[in-house]
Each structure stands twice: as structure tokens, then as C-alpha cells.
Amino acid sequence: MARIAGIILALMMTICPVSAETLRVVSLYPGHSDNIFAMGGSDILVALSENDDDDLLPELPRVSLRSGAERILALRPDVVVTRGFAERINPGMYDVLRRSGVRVVSIDPPTWDDFPEYLKTLAQSLNLNPEAALSRLDSIREEITREAMSSTHPNVFLEATSRELHTCAPDSWAARLIEAAGGANIAGDAVPLRSGSAIASWGAERVLKNAGNIDVYIIQTGAMNSATLLEFQGREWSGALHGVKVIEIPERYMSRPSLLGLERGGSELVRVFREVRR
Asked: Is 216 helix (H, G, I), strand (E, B) or coil?
């Protein structure tokens, strides 16, 4: 599917080319924003979504996913990049944008294995260099793998949400990142909440059952999980994990499919795993 999308976008660019020098882009998904920035496209961005990180191009205006089309049209964009979820929230806005001549590029967040094709598609849709993007991806992944060889390969549990204590699905971005950095996900048999979900059921009882096998407990902090290390320490059962290294890592580094997240999240995991002595 991603390959077909890439072909369609390439044809669109051939039929209706837009000069990279004049391209004006509004990004309404943080993952796209991160990757456009990482691919050297910061100059073409004229606005980001309100969910983007505060430290990413802070001088640019932020746009709500529920904004009216007029708010975006006032920015005079050539292209709006978004994802299917955002389109479903406010379909009328995208209809108006298209009728106004704005090209809407909708690409859903990729899986770990589909990430190279996603980068190629995103780059081609914005007249950026896909080969440079793929080269950087290979470089980051190779560096993580090389550094991971010196880690202690600890057993890891990731808390995706404190509510009902969900973890990452076995084939999610977070689980694959843990594996790439040299860790072993103890919740490898967790069942996703639904088909394709990055979140899986687990529960405190199963954490306690596996307490003796956990070396690192990661609290993924962000929109899905407001838990903190201090809050964790106040849980009635946290004492059972005495001796386990408990850390916080931002959701954007653990679960967001982006070059920036991969680089920073992988580096942080490798650093933490090196400190663990089993």
C-alpha cells in the first residue's frame, strides 16, 4: 500500500510540479513535522499542529486539528500534510482546502518495517531528497545496532499507559526500538487491544508475576500516559520491583515513527541498558 501511495504521489508531482523554492507546507501531524525537519525541510514549513513539540521550530504558528479552513488558508500553503485520524476529526476542513487548490497529502504513521517507504513517500511529496532521508535512516539504525552490542541486553517492560497498565504491542515501534537497542521485551506475548494497535493489555498482576525477571521498567510519558517516576514510587506494588531500574522516557522518543525520535530514543535506551548489570 505504501509503495502504491508513493507511485501516485510521484505522478502527482509530475503532473502538477511545485518548486521546492516556493513550496509552503503546513504539517498537522508531529511525526511528519519531525521527519520534514530531519530531512532538511524546515524552510518549507510555515505552520505546525498544536500537538507538535514546543521546541521544534517554536517561531512557527501552531494550528488546531479542529481549526477552520480559513485559519490554514490565511497561511497561503501549497501543501498540507496530515494523517487519516486528523482527516476524520475535521473532514469538512480538508474538503475546503482541496477545493481552494491546496494539495492535501495524507499519510498514516508507518510501522517499523514500512518506515523507509514512508520516508521516501513523504520526501517525494514535498520535493525533498528521498535518498538523503534513507541514508540518514540507515546511518541511525546502524549506529544503534553497533552501540547495542556493548549493552548487557536487559529484560525490559514498557508502561504505555498507567491506566489498566497497558504496554507496547509486540510489533509496535516501541517494542522494535527496545529490541534494536539491545533489550528484551518481557511482554513479547502481550495481545494488542485491537488489530494494528500499538498498545497491548498487560496489568499490574502480570508485572508482579514477572518482577524477578525485569531489569528495566520504562514509564513512557506523554499524551497517553501522565504517570511520573514519583507517581510510580507511590504505587502500592512498586516495592516489589526493588532493584529494578525505573526510568521515564518521552513518548515522542519511544513511540513516534520519526528520524528524530529514533535517534534520540535509541541513544537513550542504549545508554540506560549499558548501566544495567544483570
From this structure: strand
Residue 3 in contact with residue 116, Cβ under 8 Å?
Answer: no
pLDDT of residue 1: 43
pLDDT, one tens digit per residue, over 2-16 is 444 443 343 344 334
Phi, psi of 135 (to 5 degrees): -65, -40
83 within some domain: yes
Collapsing DSSP to helix, strand or coil, 80 comes out as strand
> 23 is written with which cell numbers?
513550496
pLDDT tens column, 163-180: 889 999 999 999 999 999
Q: Edge to edge, what strands does the sheet with 79-82 contain?
A: 62-63, 45-49, 25-27, 79-82, 103-106
State which residues form the domain around 79: 2-128
Q: How far apart are CA 180 and CA 48, in angstroms?
A: 30
Please check whether residue 143 lies inside any domain of the structure: no
Is 180 within 8 Å of 254 (Cβ atoms)? no
